[in-house]
UniProtKB/TrEMBL annotation:
It comes from the Eukaryota. Pfam families: Ribosomal_L13. Keywords: Mitochondrion, Ribonucleoprotein, Ribosomal protein. InterPro entries: Ribosomal_uL13, Ribosomal_uL13_bac-type, Ribosomal_uL13_sf. It is found in: Mitochondrion. This is Large ribosomal subunit protein uL13m. Coiled coil: none annotated. GO terms for biological process: negative regulation of translation; translation.
């Protein structure tokens, strides 16, 4: 019986799995770093820099992603057209309004290693701005996002306020 169990563990370890992540109220950079490690396969015990053992990641609700601080206004994305004077700049809120998946895509792309494997890793990433996606039958597990946003003061109930420990 132990051999069958080992075989099953080995099969799950060496198979490319599909994971689902909900990006609602997640900090953009922390979520991108977490997704980049899963895409590279660094969460697996068999990871090796020369072996491609990464998994597929489906991210839903990218329209509800969050930035810390005032980054929605101050974070600037730049690209160059290749022509003289062709430097184009846009801030995060404008890019998010144009395409809600693009802000997270750029963050994940920037956190992957700058080599020929980056395009392969990014081909295993699927971003959706809402809950609906066509890969429901492929999903192996739903991953917990790295950190949840703290509740705002108006989201607490009266009982939670009363049960909060008094400092003095």
């Amino acid at each position: 019986m132990l051999v069958g169990n080992r075989f099953r563990q080995s099969l799950v370890t060496h198979t490319r799995l599909w994971y689902l992540i909900n990006a609602k109220d997640q900090i953009n950079g922390r979520l991108a770093a977490y997704i980049a490690t899963v895409l590279q396969g660094k969460t697996k015990p068999i990871w090796h820099p020369k072996a491609d053992v990464g998994d597929f990641v489906v991210v839903v609700n990218t329209k509800d992603i969050a930035f810390s601080g005032r980054k929605w206004d101050r974070k600037v994305y730049r690209h160059h057209t290749g022509y003289p004077g062709g430097l184009k700049e846009t801030n995060a809120i404008a890019l998010h309004q144009k395409d809600p998946t693009r802000v997270l895509w750029r963050a994940i792309n920037g956190m992957l290693p700058k080599n020929n494997s980056r395009k392969i890793y990014m081909s295993r990433l699927f971003l959706f701005e809402g809950e609906d996606h066509p890969y429901a039958e492929n999903i192996y597990a739903q991953l917990e996002a790295p950190a949840s946003m703290p509740k705002k003061l108006d989201e607490y109930t009266k009982e939670e306020f009363e049960n909060y420990p008094k400092l003095f």
